[in-house]
Amino acid sequence: MRGAEILLQPGVFPRLLQGLWVTVWIAGASVLLALPLGLLVGWLMTLKNPAVRVIMRVYLDFIRIMPQLALLFIAFYGFAQAFDWNLDATGACVLVFVLWGAAELGDLVRGALESIPRTQYESAKVLGLNSWQTFTRVILPQALRRLLPASVNLVTRIVKTTSLATLLGVVEVIKVGQQIIDANRFQYPDATLWIYAVIFLMYFIVCWPLSIVARRLEKRWAHD
Amino acid sequence: MTDINATTTGSASLGVAGAAEHPAVTAQGAALSVRHLVKQYDNASAPVLNDISFDVPAGQVFVILGPSGSGKSTLLRTIAGLEPIQGGEITMGGELLRQAQSAGKLRSASASDSTKVGMVFQSYDLFPNKTVLGNIMLAPVLVQKRDKASVQAEALRLLERVGLADRKDAWPHELSGGQRQRVAICRALIEHPQVMLFDEVTAALDPEMVREVLDVILELANSGQTMLIVTHEMAFARAVADHVVLLANGSIVEESDHPQEFFDHPHTERAQQFLATFTYDRGQRQS
């Protein structure tokens, strides 16, 4: 059990918390930017215009088929070099997660919008509501309810996937853990399990409340 | 609400607000006039509605009967502006309401135009994100820009009339099918439509709930509301109709100003055949 003592070493826990902050920052920034973009993408996906449809289809499929890691490498090594961008590793992560989140969220928004029965549009029209009033007062409120549980799950997926940022050299919580383990390899040879257990708990504490919220909302809005 | 005799005594109240503010409802002559209406889908070889013409005098109850696929729902939908028409025109109180568009697009209606027709659908189409009161008050406040307090007062009066005053704050999912349809009727009535359209409003209901909805429609008929009703409830059609139209294959096969006579002694063979599908003969049972 000597390995557990590493957690009490000065600096270890604060450093892990710093790493966690980087993780949460990347995930939070990505989600905040992906939300409005995802709503826009979802709306674009419902349009009948063939050109828009094709573009959106290609965008969604490209993001879905490519492993996130490959996307990160393309953004960080490929784009930055090709276009001479001064894009740091964290920026590349946020860029990829925003594009990924917006595509996935867009598909959820599209599904939610298309699941609203046609009679909802028709009764609004017969009552005299114009398309904007119908969308904002009738369709969108219903779509958001159907959307929320699934999008909260998407947020937890984004939080977990930020661990890939390590491979671009971002010092987030996993990387910090590895550094601590490496630095103490001789003093605490069996520290690995303990450090990763703490990291597991940290991810859990961030994602668990989101899961609870998602489940609550699912239950409350099940009747729609 | 379950007793027709009881509801007819207080009849005038449901439509009275509309009648007072819209003289067209009480004026003589045709409230709604359909002329040479043609409706055809792009990919169909035959029109769904073929040269339909009729006049609905103000205050009259028009019942449209017909086998499924005869175009009766489509007819209501064209009047409601949900389907573009390919020929003819629809006028209301002498003013053009809909006409054929070469582009196949619907003429964009002004706010006052769009509230001239009220419609209740077969499916329960209340807005699930709004309460009963929220459903009823949405359009008059948002579209007709009426005063919120007076709209609420009228909404409560309408709910009282249909026996749902105590459910004003309920959510649609908490209501039975029959209650939802009664709320849907209130939601349409509060805009004071000149013509009300009912598209098989009881078709999806349990038999016991059919009565409560039809009683409301009957009371509305007695209050002088002009309406077009598509229904499969023959006993109800016989009780409520001023005029009966039988539609088959997109054309009017037979119509009559004397509903009793139509139901008892239809002239055309098609009408006899149609009405026969609702009766059963004990002689068919092999003992």
Automatic annotation (TrEMBL), chain A:
Domain of life where this protein originates: Bacteria
PROSITE patterns reported for this sequence: ABC_TM1
InterPro entries on file: AA_ABC_transptr_permease_3TM, ArtM/GltK/GlnP/TcyL/YhdX-like, MetI-like, MetI-like_sf
Transmembrane segments: 20-46, 58-79, 194-214
Keyword Membrane carried by entry: yes
Keyword Transmembrane helix annotated: yes
Domain ABC transmembrane type-1 as annotated: residue spans: 20-214
GO terms under cellular component: ATP-binding cassette (ABC) transporter complex
GO biological process: amino acid transport
Record key words, sorted: Cell membrane, Membrane, Transmembrane, Transmembrane helix, Transport
Signal peptide: none
Chain segments annotated as coiled-coil in the UniProt record: none
Subcellular location: Cell membrane
Membrane topology: Multi-pass membrane protein
UniProt GO molecular function: transmembrane transporter activity
Family: Belongs to the binding-protein-dependent transport system permease family.
NCBIfam families the record matches: HEQRo_perm_3TM
Name of the featured protein: Amino acids ABC transporter, permease protein
Taxonomic path: Bacteria, Bacillati, Actinomycetota, Actinomycetes, Bifidobacteriales
UniProtKB/TrEMBL annotation, chain B:
Keyword Cell membrane tagged: no
Residue stretches in coiled coil: none
Protein name as annotated: Glutamine transport ATP-binding protein glnQ
GO molecular function per UniProt: ABC-type amino acid transporter activity; ATP binding; ATP hydrolysis activity
Domain of life: Bacteria
Family (UniProt): Belongs to the ABC transporter superfamily.
Top-rank EC class of the record's enzyme: hydrolase
EC number in record: 3.6.3.31
Residues in ABC transporter domain copies: 32-274
InterPro entries: AAA+_ATPase, ABC_ATPase_HisP-typ, ABC_transporter-like_ATP-bd, ABC_transporter-like_CS, MetN_ABC_transporter-like, P-loop_NTPase
Organism: Bifidobacterium bohemicum DSM 22767
Pfam families: ABC_tran
SMART domains: AAA
Keywords: ATP-binding, Hydrolase, Nucleotide-binding, Transport
